[in-house]
Amino acid sequence: MNLHYFFALITSTCICAVIAITAWHRRAAPGAFGLMLAMMAEMVWSGTYAVRWLVSDVTTQLFWLDATYFGVAFQTTFFLVFALQFTGYSHLLIRRNLVLLSIEPLLTLLVLWTDRWHGLFYGGLRTTGTILAGGAWFWMNVVYSYLFVFIVIGLFTRAYLRSSNLYRLQTGIILFASLLPVVGNFLSLTGLVAIPNLDLTPITFTISGLFYAIGLFGFGLMDVVPVARNLLVEEMVDGVIVLDVQNRIVDINPAAQRLLDISPAVIGKPAGDPLVERLHIDQARTHSLASITEMRLSQNPPLDIELRITPMLDKYQKLTGRLLIVHDITDRKRAEAALRESQAFLADLIENSGVTVFVKDIEGHYTLVNRKWELWNGIKREFAIGRTDVDLFPEDTAKEFRNNDRRVMEQANILEEEDEINDDHGKRSYLTVKFPLRDKDNLINGVCGITTDITDRKRAEMQLREAHDLLEQRVQERTFELQTANVELEKAARMKDEFMASISHELRTPLTGVLGLSEVLQSGTYGQLNEKQMTALGHINSSGKHLLELINDILDYSRIEAGMAELSISPCSLADICQACLQMTAAQADTKHLHGSLSVKPEMVIMADERRLKQILVNLLGNAIKFTEDGGSFGIDVTGPQDGSIGMEGTAGWLNITVWDTGIGIGEEDQARVFQPFVQVDARLSRRYSGTGLGLALVRRLVELHGGGITLQSVPGQGSRFTVKLPWSG
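Now predict its structure.
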C-alpha cells in the first residue's frame, strides 16, 4: 500500500475524466472524439493502477495490475485516432481500418489473461510493483505501441511545420504534450527514474492531457483547429485575407499571395498603401457593413476580381476585424464579354437577315421584330413591341395568328404554313415557320416565327414539274418507238433465221447429189477415168464437202438463233465421245504429222446431247489441227470437281473439257472477238487459213444450250486452250 502513489494516480484519473467529458461536449470538432477515447483509456489505466497501490493482498495487486491493460492496450491506438482526426486524415478511419487497429490490443488482452498457461506475456518476470518487463509478447506490444506513438509525433510535427505563425504556438503545445508519454515510459523501462516500482507513463499521459486542456480552454484549440484551417483555407482557390481593426494583416493564404503578388512576410504588419488603394479596403475600416465589389487590377496580365469584405464581430457585436475573400473572375468576365459579342452578332444577324423574324411572349405580346418585319408589315417596331396581333392586324388575320401560336405552344411542335398574298408585284408565296421558346427551366414561355419569301422557289418548282412532265411524256413516246422498232427487229431477225434455215436446206439437197455423183464417178462405176479427171473429181468432192459443212453450220446456227434447236439429252460416256472425235480428225492430223493425246477417266459419264457434244469437240479439234504447225501437238483433257477444278460460279459441280494445241495462238485483243459469228482474226483476202468464222460462234451457242460456258486461254506463239464447262452431277 502506498497512499502517495494512490492519490497521484487518482488525481490523474480525475483530470482525464474532465478532459474526456469536455471533449464529449465538443465532439463535433475535428479530433474531439479521438481525444475523448484516449482520455477514457488513460482514465481506466490510471484508475486501475491507483487501486493496485491501495490494496495489500498480493493476488489482488496482481489482478489490478492486469486490469490496467484494459486502458494500456488501447491507449496508443486511441491517440492515433485522435491524431488522424486532428490533422485532417479522418478519411482513413473507415470500418475496415478500425477493425485492423483493434486486433493487436484485443490479442494483447487475450495473451495477458491466459499467460499462466503459456508465459508469452510475462515470461516468468511478473512482479507486484509494475509491468516493466516480460516475455516475447510484452516486448512486441511495446514496439507496436512505440510505433504508433512515433506516427502520432510525426503527424503533429508535420502539422506544426505547416501551421502559420498565428497557430504555430497551439500546434506546438500539442506536439510537446505528445512527447511527454514517450519520456515517461522510457524512464520507467530503463529504470532511470528514482521512484521505485512506479510506472510514470500514466502520469505523463495525464500531464499531456493537462497541456491539451490548456490548449482547449486557453486557446480555443477545438474551435480553431489549425490543421483543418490549413486544409480548408490554404487549399482554397480564392484568396483569403484577415485584417484586424487596425488594418493589420493577421493571415493570408497562398491563393491571395498569388493573386495579389504579396509575400507571406506581411503577416502581422499593417496593410500597405498600395494594397489599400488597390482593394479600397480603407472604405470599410470604420463600419461593420459587408460589401461585394468587382474591380480590375492593373497588372500583367490584368486581373478581374470580386472582393467580398465581411466584418468579424464578437459576441457584443463589436468589430474585431474583417475577412476579405478575393475571387478571380477573369474567366467569367471573358465569358461575359464573349456572350455579349455573341449576342451582338446574333442581333446583327437577325436585324439584317433577308427573312422576317419576330418573337412573342406566352401572352402574345411582341418582344422582338427585325427590320424586314417592319418593311413587310409597314409597322414600326417601336409601335409593335409590347402589343399583340389584335392591336396590329385585322381581326380575322390576328385570330388566325393567335390560334397558330397557341397550337405551337400547346403541342410543343414546329408549325410550317405557306400563304399566297397579292401585292403590288403580283401573287407572292410565303413560308412561315413557328417554334416554341423555352426558359432555363425548359418551360415554354413564347413563340418565335420566321417568314421567308419563297415565290422564286415556287416558280422554279413549277417549272421543274412542267419540265419533268414533258420529259416523262417524251420518254414514253420514245419508249413506244423503241418497243415498236424492237418488235420489227425481232420479226426481221426471225425472218432472216427462217430464210437462212430454208435456203441452207435448199442448197444442201442438190449439193448432196453432186457429192454422191462425184463419189460414184471416182469409184469407176461408169468407167475408168484418167488421172486429170480423177484430180478434178477430187477437187469437186473436197469443195463440195467444205460447202456442205458451211451450209450445215449456217443451218445449225440459224436454227439455234431462231429457237428451233432441240437437244436430245441422254447419258454419254466422255471417253467414248472424245475417242470418236479424235478418230474423226485423225486423217487431218496425220497430213500435218501432229501428235494427239487424250486424258479422261473411263468412268466419266455426263448428261448431254451426244451428237451436239461431238459437234462441239470436232469443231474445236478442227481448229486446233488447222492452226498448229507441222509436227506440233494437240489433245483433250477432261477434269471433274474431284480433280480440283472450279466451276463457272466459283463452286464445285462442273465438268471441264479442255481442247488444247501448241499452235499459233490468239492475241489478247482478239480473244473476245473469236466467239462472234462470221468473225476471223485474220480477215484479209490473202489470209493463210480458210474458214467462215462461224465454227466458234456455233460452239459457244451449243455449249450454252447445255447450260454451260466456254473460256479461252491463249498466248501468241505458244498455243491455245479452249475449256468447255458443263454441269455435272458426278
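The longest helix spans residues 455-523.
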